[in-house]
Amino acid sequence: MDANQLYEMLRKTQEPKGYFFHRDRERAREILRDLLVNKERYGYMACPCRLAAGDREKDRDIICPCVYSKEDIKEYGSCYCNLYVSREWNEDKIPHVYVPERRPPGKLTF
Q: According to the model, what pLDDT value does residue 110 have?
């Protein structure tokens, strides 16, 4: 699977949930390529914007779309890495602000 195929597959499943890809398709594809690298490396698509432990159970919270994305998109219009955004974010109807890390500090060390 390549980034274009992943883009189309995820677009079909995530858009009905209100999650849209970043309007800059190349930026979105870059993150999708990184997800595919992590899938090859770890066997699952860990968020490329976070440090993965390489243990599926420890990384369960950062498997894309991560468990934090729903609240991030609700509050900020974007997930932490800006892959998934709201329609309003893509249409510049809400400000594009930094999304703080929600992952608990204890999850950041191995």
A: 56
The string of DSSP codes covering 19-76 is: -EE-S-HHHHHHHHHHHHHHHHHHSS-B-TTS---S-HHHHGGGBSSPTTHHHHHHHH
The residues facing 78 across adjacent strands are 85
87-92: long-range contacts at Cβ-Cβ below 8 A with a sequence spacing of 24 or more? 87/18, 87/20, 89/20, 90/20, 90/22, 90/23
Handedness of CA 61, 64, 68, 71 (dihedral sign): negative
pLDDT of residue 107: 75
pTM above 0.85, yes or no: yes
Has residue 109 got a pLDDT over 70? no
